[in-house]
Write a structure and sequence with these properties.
This protein has five helices and no strands. The protein is mostly helical.
């Protein structure tokens, strides 16, 4: 059994350009469509939004309040408080004063029908 050594007459270097092209062709032969190129970024097509300074200020604020860390981990963001919560008595009073139609709608939501 003869073995070919690198540098011998019958051995080919795997680093040659034709070998790379052939292997690339074999890899791409299984793809159904050629790769599409993304359009180049053009400043005139960019929407006039926030300035760089505004974006950096928002980024720094997100770092300080912990929002950035939550976003990076994929955690849900806390809901901002919409105002003072209702007291227990206020909720009971609202439930007692609701119309029968409102009561049915609430019961469907909470009990499933």
């Amino acid at each position: 059994m003869s073995s070919l050594r690198p540098g011998s007459v019958g051995a080919r270097s795997l680093d040659c350009g034709s070998c790379r092209q052939a292997s690339r062709g074999r890899l791409l032969a299984g793809t159904s469509q050629p790769r599409k190129r993304r359009p180049a970024f053009r400043q005139d097509r960019a929407k006039n939004g926030k300035s760089r300074a505004e974006v950096l200020a928002e980024l720094e604020a997100a770092r300080k309040d912990g929002t950035l860390a939550l976003i990076q981990r994929g955690a849900p963001l806390p809901i901002k408080n919409a105002g003072p919560a209702k007291s227990r008595q206020q909720v009971i009073d609202e439930m007692r004063s609701e119309s029968p139609k409102q009561r049915r709608a609430r019961m469907e939501l909470t009990t499933g029908g």
